[in-house]
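User: Can you fold this complex?
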Amino acid sequence: MYSVEVNKILKAYGTRAVVNDVSFSVNRGEIFGLIGPNGAGKTTTIRMMMDIIKPDSGDIKIMGEKLNDGSKNKIGYLPEERGLYKKMSVMDTIIYFASLKGVDNQLARKRGEVLLKRADMLQHQNKKIEELSRGMGQIIQVIVTIIHEPDLVVLDEPFSGLDPVNTQLLKDMIRELKNGGKTIIMSTHLMNDIEELSDRLLMINKGREVLYGSLAEVKSKYRNNAVLVECVGEIGNIEGVTEQRRHNSAIELVLDGKTTPQMLLERLVAKHIVVNRFELATPSLTEIFIKVAGDEHE
Amino acid sequence: MNKTMLLIKHEFLATIRRKAFIILTIAFPVVALLGILAGQVIPKMITPSVTIEKIGYVDNTGIFSGTLTENQLQLIQYNNVDAAKTALIKKDITDYFVIPVNYVATGLVQHYTLKNEITPSSAVQTVVRDFLLSNLLKGNDVAIIDRAKSPMNIASITLTSTGAVAPRQGGFGALILPYIFSILLLIAIFTSSGYLLQGLGEEKENRVMEILLSSVSPKELLAGKVIGLGAAGLLQIVVWLISADFILKIASSSFGKVIGSLQVTPDFLILGIVYFILGYLLMAVLMAAVGSVSATAREGQQMSAFFIIPVLIPVYFMALIMEHPENIVVKILTFIPFTAPITVIVRLGLSQIPIWELGLSILILILTIWGCFVLATKLFRTYLLMYGKRPDLKAIIQSFRSA
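Assistant: Here's the predicted assembly.
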């Protein structure tokens, strides 16, 4: 059973479709990346999953059930536009939002203490939110998001505004959630974070699905027929290589359609070139993102 | 506890802990007590003036003579205008009157003074009038002259259709309480719905809204806010009513006659609370709609004036409502949802409002509130998470259809 099944959802404002015929599913216990340029429709998609806005058509299932009154309690959601009551204390904030998810006050306090301790913030539990730094406030929001131990955690731009220490803390918490069997959907602009954490991803642009699959599948789809080579001395002209690009100590050799990497390696050896490194050149997710978003833009 | 109850509790506690709410709630009883205290203490502190001001008169008719002293004013006769004028310039007197030869035919009396005033003060007018009356009625019994000076004290008694004395009597006492209560009602409605607007604006600016909506539905959120803040407003009204009863008891010692005539009848209390709840609910759902479409708390407050002004309409018609509570315009105001709460409260003190009018007025209010709640929920769902920009009217109408 999937944690999330989204089937052909459509949301339009007037004549403009913000999300158009998008379908995807998220496996239990995986980290799923939702990426796309600004205005692509990521937040609208997430809001429809949260039943904050209704799709014009299509349907969404959470944990095998169509969205219903109880769905919200199964999801922990950290929105991109986030904030807390400034005058409330840290612990009161945690308890209040936990109570809205159906957790009783005593249990919420106990869990809150554990999570605050995990974030090394237990000493701040009686402080007002306005007394905390922005990064600390954001960690409190993450705690509020997971205080009811949801099966599904949706994080919209979770790392924005965090310093490297808190970013690392949050990444560790995300991994711990995954190890605990939770499903995580993460929407971010930071492709490195998606590459580092995600198992599978969906890229949408202008409301439509443009990339969907595991990280390896996506990368192989956009892999050029090229290899990265580090060697001693000049390579010179080699049959089957159409272009050479220098990347610091390595050279990327772009092959024509007939030449395989194996054939290239044989030709290099035949030319007595000492090869120290030889690997298939795989584009980074950032490069794929720019290429796909750019192609769509054209 | 279900989610709506949790929201109600949160909103109620957050509101009654606000400094502005606490100050406003205790301000009414404190100001009233200070007023009573001032009424008792200040007259004792002020020593009455012992200086008697003199006013002259010149009689050209031959009817008037003698002098009169009343309220620290003494009327004295001068033989001619020149003598009176000289006394005025020398400031022996503050004013003088000339009673011309044709006074009996015209009633005209000329008034001269160094002061720049529109009309003589009421004290001066009274002493001159009493002097004229005393002379005109010379030869009559003193009691008759006194009665002529104050010929009528009305004691109105309202009867029921069977001819029995009605339980609720009119008059100043019956009027003053609904008047004060209608003002307090306005304040309570505006402050409670104002807190709602402010709270929504703050939550939009704080970006708490989306976190809330990830846990509760827009309908639960709206209901929680409206009821929670309404309960706080009701608490304010109850505090005022209880303190009013207490204050009336204290005040009756100093203002016995007036206070004694004040009546707080059960139907007035019940309808007062019913119309507070309905009036508040209407304003609250409208403020919620305004709050969801406005970009900031300040913009929301500016837009709210659009709905506040109609509620104030009965205040402009107050004289009409008081003098002609059965007038057709007043009846229409009773049925318009915005104007009904204040109009009914003031009418209650003056006349018996037919049951069908009250029933229709309440029904229209309830239906309007329900309609506004449905529309406000749609706006809530569509615009609550739209930050920094305000939709135009066309987009709002479109969202009523699609949300």
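The interface with chain B takes residues 14, 47, 50-54, 56, 69, 72-73, 75, 77, 79, 81-86, 96-97, 99-101, 141, 144 of chain A (CB under 8 Å). DSSP finds nine helices and 14 strands in chain A.
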